[in-house]
C-alpha cells in the first residue's frame, strides 16, 4: 500500500511545477513583439525590394555562372525550397501578429464600450436633472407673475377704496381712504 502512494499519480500535476522552464528571452510576450516587428517589416517596400534583388541575383548567378560555381545543379529548385521555408515561417508569424492585434482591438473595444456606457449614464443623469429643474421652475413664481398679481391686487383695492390714491407730501399727513383704521 505504501508503494502505491510513492508512485507519481498521472491524474494530478507534479509538485514543483515544470521541469523545463522557458528562458525569459523567449517569453510569449517577447516572441509576440518580435513577430509583430517582423510582420511589419515584411509589409514594407524595403523587404519587397530586397527579396526581389535576392531572387534576381540568385537566378542570375545560377543561370549565368559557370556550372562549377553554381549553388544548385538545377537553378530554381534550391531557391524554391528557400522561399518555401521562408513562407512557412512567415505565415505563422503574421498570424501571430494578427492575433495580438485582434486582442488589442478587443481590449480597446471593451474600454470604449465601458466609457460609452459611463457617458450614457452621465447623460441620462443630466437629462433627468434638467427635467427636474424645468418642473421646479414651472412651480416658481416669476418676477412678471408677482408684479402682475400685485397690480391686480392694487387695482382691486383701489376699486374698493382701501388704498391711498396719491402720495402724501413730506410735510403733510397722509390721506386715508374711508374705512381705513386711524
UniProtKB/TrEMBL annotation:
This is DUF1003 domain-containing protein. The chain crosses the membrane at residues 46-64, 76-97. It comes from the Bacteria. InterPro entries: DUF1003. The lineage of its organism: Bacteria, Bacillati, Actinomycetota, Actinomycetes, Micrococcales. Keywords: Membrane, Transmembrane, Transmembrane helix. Residues 161-182 are annotated as: Disordered. The keyword Hydrolase does not apply. The keyword Iron-sulfur does not apply. It comes from Ornithinibacter aureus.
Amino acid at each position: 500500500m505504501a508503494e502505491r502512494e510513492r508512485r507519481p499519480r498521472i491524474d494530478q500535476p507534479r509538485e514543483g511545477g515544470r521541469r523545463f522552464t522557458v528562458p525569459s528571452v523567449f517569453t510569449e510576450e517577447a516572441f509576440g513583439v518580435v513577430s509583430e516587428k517582423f510582420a511589419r517589416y515584411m509589409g514594407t517596400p524595403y523587404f519587397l525590394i530586397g527579396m526581389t534583388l535576392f531572387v534576381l541575383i540568385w537566378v542570375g548567378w545560377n543561370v549565368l555562372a559557370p556550372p562549377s560555381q553554381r549553388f544548385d545543379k538545377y537553378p530554381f529548385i534550391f531557391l524554391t525550397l528557400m522561399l518555401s521555408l521562408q513562407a512557412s515561417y512567415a505565415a505563422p508569424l503574421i498570424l501571430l501578429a494578427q492575433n495580438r492585434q485582434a486582442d488589442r482591438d478587443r481590449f480597446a473595444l471593451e474600454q470604449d464600450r465601458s466609457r460609452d456606457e459611463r457617458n450614457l449614464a452621465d447623460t441620462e443623469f443630466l437629462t433627468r436633472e434638467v427635467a427636474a429643474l424645468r418642473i421646479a421652475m414651472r412651480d416658481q413664481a416669476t418676477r412678471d407673475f408677482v408684479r402682475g398679481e400685485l397690480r391686480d391686487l392694487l387695482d382691486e383695492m383701489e376699486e374698493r377704496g382701501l388704498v391711498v390714491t396719491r402720495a402724501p407730501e413730506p410735510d403733510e399727513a397722509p390721506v386715508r381712504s374711508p374705512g381705513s383704521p386711524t
